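User: Predict the structure for this protein chain, please.
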Amino acid sequence: MAGARTWYGERVASDSGYGVGANTFRAFRGIKKPSLIYRTWAAAILRRKAFRSKLLRAKNRRAFEAFHAWLSRSLDCHWSANAKRPLSLAHKYKLVDLFVKHAVRLDLDDEQLNRNLLAFGHVPIDSSVFSAVDKLLSGILVAQGRAMGHIKTPEAYRFYQTLTTELVRPLRVPTLYFDYFAWHVEKDA
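Assistant: Here is the predicted structure, written as C-alpha cells:
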C-alpha cells in the first residue's frame, strides 16, 4: 500500500491523455477520433466551476455518487453530440473512472479536491481488477478473463464497486488503492 500512497500522493501537470491510453480507444471502432472527443470533454470539465463546487461538496460517499453521476451525464451528452452515438454503460463508466483516477493526481488549486477524489473514487474496472478479485476470492465469481465490457447493467457496475470497496475496507485505505494493487499483482504474477 506504500506504493499506492506514494503514487496517488504525487501531483502531476495535466497531460493530453487525461488518464486514458490509446489502447482503451481501440474499443471505439467506427468513431472518428474518440480520444479527441474524450480529451476535449476532460479539459472542459476541469475548467467548469461546477466541477470544483460539486467536488468540494462531495465529502461523503452519497455526495460523491451524485458527483460521479453528474460527470457520467456530462460525458454521455458530450460524447453523443460529437460521436453521433451514445456510449455504452461500460465505456461511459470506464472513461469517467479513468478520468477521476487521473484527476486525483492533478495539481488542482485546492488539495480538498484531490482528497475528495481519492477518498471516494471508483476503481476503473478492467481485466487486471477482475483478475485480482478472482485471485482474492479464489475464483468464486468467475471473474478471470472478464473486462469492463462484460458489465452490462448499473447494478453489476455497483456490485463490483462495492466489492472492491469492501475488499480494502479492513486496510482503511481508499478504494482506488485496489486499482494500484490489481495492476501490480498482474505485473508481478
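The chain has ten helices and no strands.
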